[in-house]
Amino acid sequence: MSNVDRKRKANGDQNLTPRKKFQKDQAGAFNDRQSHNAISSNHSSPGSLPPLPDIDEKYVDEVFTHVTVSANTNYDRLEFLGDAYIEVIASQLIYERIPTLPAGRMSQLRESLVKNETLGQYTVLYGLDKRLKQFKRIQNESKQAAWLKIKGDVFEAYVAAVVLSTPDGFSTVKTFLTQLWAPKVDAVVAEPRASLKSKEELGRKLLGKGVTISYVDEREPVIHYGQGKETYYVGVYLTGWGWENQYLGSGKGLSKGVAGQEAAAAALKNHPLIDEIVAVRNAFYEQKKEEDRQKENLEKE
Fold it and tell me: Across residues 255-279, what is the average pLDDT?
């Protein structure tokens, strides 16, 4: 029986079929109007996204050329540079914006900001993918994972081009990305501090030798196009103390880590099940203590 089936059984056979939902993509067409030697975004930003910065015309061919179109002039080198800029800006933003965030959680948040799924989303929202030379051919010939990486690469190349286009390009990109990532970062800032310890508390209550607590994706994340964020859904299950893959609770959040913490918090409130498991665990350790005492007394005699 799958985890989803177990949860259905425990909750009255609710409809939990995993499926991906997308909010409507409101991206408008990218404005190619030129001003002097710069390519201006002049973009009616989709949703609440910030305007796309300009790039110098001399970088346009590189940014929007895939290696299969030209081996000499393509976005590979710009993508390499843009990847580094994005990583540094994300790291500094998280470090300065959330000074109390643990290092492990900082890494998780940074990954959610810089991963291809996120950057590829921005590429689509700003219409950068459609500006690729031979866009349709590349899209049709690429597998899903490859096309996702291409979209991420294009965004990274564009970021590098913005940095190189003007003397204050790095500052421009930093401001742009800070605004772009604001929904994801603000969601972490708004996390209830107590919930960040729910997993730890659940582990203290239930774990023991040979006992496992598993956090699993219950469905694919819901992507909120135009808002720069995703909602994740996680369930928590216990194996041990006489239970096999027992569903304990579910949670959702704007990161997988937050969703897991919410699932643990729900499990802690899952009475009387959680009380029954804790009672079995406590009884086991009480019996073990008694056996150890008896053994110690025999050795003294």
Answer: 93
